[in-house]
Amino acid sequence: MRQRRLLTLGTGLCTAAALGLVAPHSALASPDRCSYTSSTYRPTLTHGDTGTAVKQAQCLSNMWGGQPPKLVLDGAFGSAMLKKLKWIQGCHGLPQNGVIGGRTWQVLYHPALDCYDPYPA
């Protein structure tokens, strides 16, 4: 009886995945959707910066699902972006300094599957 329930559950999950009802987080975070700059162009960015690299970082951070709010893709590194960026850094065990450097760019392009830190109110 238990095996039958597991088989039914497994079949249901496979069907949902095949229909696109379930997508892995990495599929949602495809950097192909963000093409404001080359994926190899990764300058250090801080609060107050502007430009296409900021817009790229905003777009990549918007690939996160769930609670975090979506950022306006305006190319301005404002306070909303700073708050979200620090949260993303914390999810990956990085220093929450709000600076987009090499390691932070890496996690923007390759995010963790889940974050168990609640988004700050």
Global shape: globular
Rg value: 17 Å
Tell me the strand percentage band: under 5%
What are the secondary-structure elements, in order, as H or E?
HHHHH
Query: Termini distance?
Result: 45 Å
Structural class estimated from helices and strands: mainly alpha
Low-confidence stretches: 5-29
The counted number of beta strands is: 0
The number of distinct helices, counting runs of at least 4 residues, comes to 5
Bin the helical content.
40-55%
Average pLDDT number: 79
Oligomer: single chain
Written description of the protein model:
The chain is mainly alpha-helical and 121 residues long. 43% of the residues lie in helices and 0% in strands. It has five helices and no strands. It is globular and about 30 Å long.
Task: Please give a quick description of this structure.
The chain is mainly alpha-helical. The protein has helices at residues 2-18, 25-28, 52-61, 79-91, 102-109.
Question: Key features?
Answer:
mainly alpha; 121 residues; 43% helix
List the helices and strands and how they pair.
Layout lengths: L1 H17 L6 H4 L23 H10 L17 H13 L10 H8 L12
